[in-house]
Amino acid sequence: MRLIDRYILREVGGIFLFGVAVFTTLLLVNHLFFLARLAADSGVPIRTNLFLLVLRVPYLAVYGLPMATLLATLLATGRLSDRNEITALRTTGWSLARIALPVLAVGAAVTVTSLGMSEWVVPRTETRYREILSEALQAQPRPVHQHVLFREPVDGVDSVFYARELHTSDGTMYGVVITQFQGGRPARLIEAGQARYAPQGWILKQGTLYLLGAGSGVATTFDEMRVALVRTPKQIAVPRRDPSEMTIGELRAQIATLRSAGESAVRYAVNLQAKLALPASSLIFALLAVPLGLRPHRSGRSTGLGITVLVLLAYYLLMSITITLGERGQIPAFWAAWLPNLMVATGGGCLLWFAR
User: How does DSSP classify residue 250?
Assistant: First the structure.
């Protein structure tokens, strides 16, 4: 690595660490108000609140990393430009793309780090956060759960269960549909108006069994049928995990399960794309910030901070709109998560081209 590259990285690195601390703290402050209300209204101990706050740091840091990348790149490039160091480099034959190379390398490294945190750290801390929060609030289980969906092997056969309603008080499911797979394809479909829990399994009542083999299409009605499902009503009623608690592999499995049961998986599909798009924004912000930092200005750091705030506001406002439209099914999941990145990347690429 050349001396010039190390010099540029030092300029970016110091501001980047400062930005991570500032943006993560600002995001934490917003959450601090929620925990303060929790302590006042529910009497949750301060020690528990502090632990909840610590568990939220990785989730919020994933949002803070792209913001810090934008701030660091913009201020560092602006500082080099103000001191005419970029002009001096260009007169010695360095192109703007070559000067930007270490900055883009920082953006790529932050993208990989953010993706790693989102995949291996955040799901664990978010799951623990929700467990402790639920225990602190002493949440009572709901007596009736609607649209219950889960996957469970029964007698060695992969089976997807759906119930329109689950009543945990008397251990009864209503509107039950069971899809069983063999070789990755649906082999049997069982519909029943009601299922009641018994120690030896669940008893389906007043239902129909469909054999879905090639060319068969056989349907048989029954009054009662026992299914060797070992889960109790309380085990089935465990709340569905939030997408932020899942890894990429778990999100894909959840999407496949929902689609096989005929349920909408659009929320999970959008979150899967967003899990990749948000870390990638670090590299894209670095691409945009290099030409923006070269813009002629006289107010130095204050102008850089102002541009950073404006870009972040525009980006996250656009992302909130596209994510909402995606979760409503009005635009595809890919465009819901990636459209803001593509717009910023196009703008950054054009500015870099004109400034070269």
Answer: H
Q: Which two tokens stand for residue 152?
A: 């469970």
Q: By three-state DSSP, how is residue 143 classified? A: coil
Dihedral sign of CA atoms 249, 253, 258, 259 in order: positive
Structure tokens at 236: 């089935």
CB contact set of 163 (below 8 Å; sequence gap of 6+) = 147, 148, 173, 174, 175, 176, 177, 195
Q: For 317-351, what is the HEC assignment?
A: HHHHHHHHHHHCCCCCHHHHHHHHHHHHHHHHHHH
Q: Which residue intervals of 201-265 are DSSP H helices?
A: 233-236, 248-260
The pTM (predicted TM-score) of the whole model is 0.75
Alpha carbon distances (Å) from 34 to 27, 38, 130, 324: 12, 6, 14, 23
Give the CA radius of gyration of the chain. Answer: 27
The DSSP output letter for 213 is S
Query: Look-up: residue for tokens 């196009």?
Result: 346
- Please choose, from the candidates 18, 9, 19, 22, the residue with its C-alpha nearest in 3D space to the C-alpha of residue 80: 9
Note the pLDDT of residue 234.
78
DSSP single-letter state for residue 223: E
Q: How far, in whole angstroms, is CA 343 from its chain's centroid?
A: 20
CB-based contact 62:279 (threshold 8 Å): yes
C-alpha dihedral sign at 63, 67, 69, 72: negative
Rounded to whole angstroms, how far apart are CA atoms 232 and 150? 13
Output DSSP code: residue 194: E
310 by DSSP, 3-state: which?
A: helix
Q: What is the pLDDT of residues 118-131, one digit of tens each?
A: 999 999 999 899 88
Q: Give residue-wise pLDDT tens across range 4-58.
A: 889 889 989 989 999 999 999 998 888 888 888 777 777 778 888 889 999 999 9
Tokens of 343: 């717009």
CA distance 176 to 164: 7
Query: H helices within 43-95, ranges in order?
Result: 46-82, 85-91
